[in-house]
């Protein structure tokens, strides 16, 4: 079953790369957002199954966006991503209401699907 996906990153080049990489049989990219505020707006508008969420965003960072999304009635799966390594975020990742973390260099449809598989 194809899952809908929202890509949130402040760099248009990464959003384009991720769209090309992930828009396949597993995921259908239904939207993009460039900052935390627009991410929240787009989730409310599009109701994606999965949000690929950059940690470092202008305004509201990815951790805060993930926290707010977790409080919504039909919260999407949230996977944080960053060009930094997971160890750079330490306990913040462990304490965040997310499905997982993928470094941008390791992003693939398979790695994302493994984190958000519903079955």
Overview of the structural elements:
The chain has 119 residues and is of the alpha/beta class. It has one domain: 3-Layer(aba) Sandwich (Rossmann fold). The chain is built from five helices and five strands; from the N terminus they run βαβαβαβαβα. It has a five-stranded parallel β-sheet with strand order 2-1-3-4-5, sandwiched between helices. α2 (36-46) runs parallel beside α3. The longest helix has 11 residues, at 12-22. The radius of gyration is 13 Å and the shape is globular. The mean pLDDT is 95.
Strand content: 15-25%
Order of helices and strands: EHEHEHEHEH
Radius of gyration: 13 Å
| Structural class determined from secondary elements | alpha/beta
Sequence of strands across the biggest β-sheet:
2-1-3-4-5
Question: How many distinct folded domains?
Answer: 1
Give the proportion of residues in helices.
25-40%
CATH architecture: 3-Layer(aba) Sandwich
Give me the CATH fold name: Rossmann fold
* Largest sheet: number of strands, sense, barrel closure: 5 strands, parallel
Mean pLDDT: 95
Query: Can you count the beta strands?
Result: 5
Q: Give the CA-CA distance, first to last residue.
A: 10 Å
Within CATH, the superfamily carries the name Response regulator
Summarize the helices and strands and which ones pair or pack.
Blueprint: E1 3-8, H1 12-22, E2 27-33, H2 36-46, E3 50-54, H3 62-70, E4 77-82, H4 91-95, E5 100-103, H5 109-116
Parallel strand pairs: 1-2, 1-3, 3-4, 4-5
Helix pairs in contact: 2-3
